[in-house]
C-alpha cells in the first residue's frame, strides 16, 4: 500500500515512522492483496448502490442542484477496543451531565444560582424555551438521541468539538455504509472482530417506547418533508423501526390528544420522534407562520399526554457558547473529572475573550453559536482579509452569537482519491450516536466524516465532505491470523473474486445478504400493515426505492456483463 502518512498530523493507520498500527494490520493486508484497481472497481459498485438506493442529502442554494449522493470512501476507520472504552466512558459521562443540566435550568436552575454558569448566557440563548419551564418530560429524559462530534489533535487525543442535541443527523449513513461494505468487501471483515451496528434501529425504538405515556404506545417520525436535507434519514429510520413517517399535516389535536390520520381512521400518537426544530413544532406556541408542525401540540405535551424526542428546549444545551461549560457541568452534577476534554473555546460575550478573538482572528476558527452543518464559520488561516474584516463586523455587532477556537490539526486517514487512483491522507472527525434513557446505549463506532477536498479541515457533507465506515474492534489488534490465512496466502475459493470474496449470489455472500437484510427486505416487512396513509406510503417509497435494481446492478457488474457505475 503506497501511502505517505506525513509527520504534521496524527495519522490513524500509520505511525510517524511509517509502521502500520496493530489494529489496522488486517485492513492493510487485504488492501494490498486486492490491489488498487480492484478496490477502485468495487468503489464504483458502492457509488451505484448509494445512487440506486437514494442515499442522498440536500445542499440548499447550490446552482448545480440540491440533491446529491452521499460521498463515501471505502477505506474503513478502525478503533481498537481499549481506545473505544475510553471514548464510550467519556460520552456516557457527558450525556448524563447534559441531561442533568437541562432538567435543572427548566426547574430550579441551581447551577445558575451557584454561579457555575452565567445566567445571562443561558437566558439569552435563542434556543432557551420559556414555554416549557416547569415541564418534566417522561422519565426526566430530555435528550433521547445525542450526536457528539469528536476530533483527534496532533497528539492523537480525542477532543469534543461540539454536542448535537436537537435533531442529530447522519446515523442512517452509518448504517447504510456498513450494509454496503459487507456486500462489496465481505472478505475485508473476516477475522477482524468488528462489532455490529445494525441493532441501532431496534435500540432507538425501544428507547422511544420507554417514554410513552402509556404501554405499547404508538411512535411516529415527524419530518418536514421530502425537500429537507435529511429526508432520506427520516424515511429510512421510520422504515427500519417499522413506524409511520408523518408530516405535520398528517397529525392533529383533538380532546387533549394527538391523533394521526390513517386510511382506517384516526389513531392516537404517543411518542413523536421529531426531526424539525422547536420553532416549527406548533404555530400556536412558536412561529405562527409554520406549516410544518401541529397546532395545539405544546398544550398536549405540557399535560404529559405525548412525548417528544428530543424534548422541547434541548437546543440551549448545544448552543456553542454553553458547550464551553460542559466540563463544569460534569464536575457540578456528577462530581467527576471530565474524561474527554473540549477544544479550547473563546466566548464573544466575554470582553476579554472578545479582544483576543478580534486581535488573533487570522489564527482562529470562528463559529456562529446557532449554526450547524459547517455554515456560519470563518477559518482564519484560509480566509482573505476582506472576508475576515466582514466577518469581524458581525462579531462586533453581536458578540454573544459567536465563539472562536484555535485551529486544530484534525487527524488524517488514508483515503482513495479517484482522480489519481492513489491513497492520500484526508482529515476526519467522528460522530458517535448515544441513546439516553434508563440506560445509555452507544453504537460502537459512529459516523466518520472525511474532508474529501484536499487540504480542507471541513468535513461537513454540505461543504464537500463524505464519510467512511467506522469499525470498533472487540480487541486491540491485530486480527486473527488463522482466519485470514485463506485470504492472504491461499488460492481463492471457486467462484470467488480477487481477494477471496465470493461473488454476489453465491455461497457465503448470499447467506450474508440474507442475514444483513435489505433496505427492501425484512425492514419493509416490519412496516407493512401499519395503516399508512397513501401520502405517507408514497413518501417512504421514494426514499426506499431502487433496491431491486441495486441488486441487479451489483450482480451484473460483478459478473462482468456491465461497466462499473453504469445504470441499468
TrEMBL record:
InterPro entries per record: ATP-dep_Glu-Cys_Ligase-2, CP_ATPgrasp_2, UCP005522
Biased composition range(s): Low complexity: 491-546
Renumbered residue ranges of the record's region Disordered: 459-568
Gene3D superfamilies, alphabetized: 3.30.1490.270, 3.40.50.11290
Domain (Circularly permuted ATP-grasp type) ranges: 76-451
Residue stretches spanning the membrane: none
PANTHER family: BLR5612 PROTEIN (PTHR34595), SLL1039 PROTEIN (PTHR34595:SF7)
Protein name, UniProt field: Uncharacterized protein Rv2411c
Record organism: Deinococcus caeni
Amino acid at each position: 500500500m503506497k501511502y505517505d502518512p506525513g509527520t504534521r498530523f496524527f495519522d490513524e493507520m500509520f505511525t510517524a515512522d511509517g509502521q502500520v498500527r496493530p489494529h489496522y494490520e488486517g485492513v492493510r493486508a487485504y488492501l494490498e492483496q486486492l490491489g488498487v484497481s480492484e478496490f477502485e472497481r468495487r468503489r464504483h459498485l458502492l457509488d451505484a448502490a448509494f445512487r440506486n438506493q437514494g442515499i442522498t442529502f440536500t445542499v440548499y442554494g447550490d446552482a448545480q442542484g440540491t440533491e446529491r449522493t452521499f460521498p463515501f470512501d471505502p477505506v474503513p476507520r478502525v478503533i481498537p477496543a481499549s481506545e473505544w472504552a475510553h471514548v464510550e466512558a467519556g460520552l456516557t459521562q457527558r450525556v448524563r451531565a447534559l441531561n442533568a443540566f437541562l432538567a435543572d435550568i427548566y426547574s430550579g436552575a441551581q447551577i445558575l444560582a451557584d454561579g457555575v454558569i452565567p445566567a445571562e448566557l443561558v437566558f439569552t440563548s435563542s434556543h432557551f424555551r420559556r414555554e416549557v419551564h416547569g415541564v418534566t418530560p417522561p422519565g426526566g429524559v430530555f435528550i433521547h438521541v445525542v450526536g457528539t462530534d469528536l476530533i483527534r489533535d496532533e497528539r492523537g487525543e480525542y477532543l469534543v468539538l461540539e454536542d448535537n442535541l436537537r435533531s442529530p443527523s447522519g446515523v442512517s449513513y452509518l448504517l447504510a455504509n456498513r450494509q454496503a461494505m459487507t456486500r462489496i468487501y465481505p472478505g475485508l471483515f473476516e477475522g477482524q472482530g468488528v462489532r455490529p451496528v445494525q441493532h441501532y434501529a431496534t435500540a432507538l425504538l425501544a428507547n422511544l417506547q420507554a417514554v410513552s405515556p402509556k404501554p405499547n404506545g404508538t411512535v411516529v417520525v415527524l419530518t418536514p418533508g421530502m425537500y429537507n436535507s435529511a429526508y432520506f434519514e427520516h424515511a429510512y429510520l421510520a422504515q427500519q423501526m417499522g413506524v409511520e413517517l408523518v408530516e405535520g399535516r398528517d397529525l392533529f389535536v383533538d380532546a387533549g390528544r394527538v391523533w394521526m390520520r390513517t386510511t382506517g381512521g384516526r389513531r392516537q400518537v404517543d411518542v413523536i420522534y421529531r426531526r424539525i426544530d422547536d420553532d416549527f413544532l406548533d404555530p400556536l406556541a412558536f412561529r405562527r407562520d409554520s406549516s410544518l408542525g401541529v397546532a395545539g401540540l405544546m398544550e398536549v405535551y405540557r399535560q404529559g399526554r405525548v412525548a417528544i424526542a428530543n424534548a422541547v428546549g434541548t437546543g440551549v444545551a448545544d448552543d456553542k457558547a454553553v458547550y464551553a461549560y460542559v466540563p463544569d457541568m460534569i464536575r457540578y452534577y456528577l462530581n467527576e473529572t471530565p474524561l474527554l476534554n473540549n477544544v479550547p473555546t473563546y466566548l464573544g460575550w466575554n470582553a476579554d475573550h472578545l479582544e483576543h478573538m478580534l486581535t488573533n482572528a487570522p489564527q482562529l476558527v470562528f463559529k456562529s453559536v446557532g449554526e450547524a452543518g459547517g455554515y456560519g464559520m470563518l477559518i482564519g488561516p484560509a480566509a482573505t482579509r476582506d472576508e475576515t474584516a466582514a466577518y469581524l463586523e458581525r462579531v462586533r455587532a453581536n458578540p454573544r452569537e459567536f465563539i472562536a477556537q484555535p485551529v486544530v490539526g484534525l487527524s488524517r486517514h488514508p483515503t482513495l482519491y479517484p482522480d489519481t487512483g492513489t491513497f492520500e491522507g484526508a482529515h476526519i472527525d467522528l460522530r458517535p450516536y448515544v441513546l439516553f434513557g434508563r440506560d445509555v446505549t452507544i453504537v460502537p463506532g459512529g459516523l466518520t466524516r472525511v474532508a474529501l477536498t484536499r487540504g480542507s479541515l471541513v468535513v461537513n457533507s454540505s461543504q464537500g465532505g463524505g464519510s467512511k465506515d467506522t469499525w470498533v474492534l472487540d480487541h486491540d489488534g491485530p486480527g486473527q491470523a488463522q482466519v485470514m490465512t485463506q485470504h492472504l496466502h491461499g488460492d481463492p475459493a471457486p467462484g470467488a473474486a480477487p481477494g477471496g470474496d465470493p461473488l454476489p449470489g453465491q455461497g457465503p455472500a448470499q447467506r450474508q445478504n440474507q442475514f444483513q437484510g435489505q433496505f427492501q427486505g425484512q425492514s419493509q416487512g416490519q412496516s407493512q400493515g401499519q395503516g399508512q396513509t397513501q401520502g405517507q406510503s408514497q413518501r417512504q417509497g421514494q426514499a426506499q426505492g431502487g433496491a431491486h435494481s441495486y441488486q441487479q446492478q451489483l450482480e451484473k457488474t460483478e459478473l462482468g456483463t456491465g461497466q462499473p457505475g453504469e445504470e441499468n
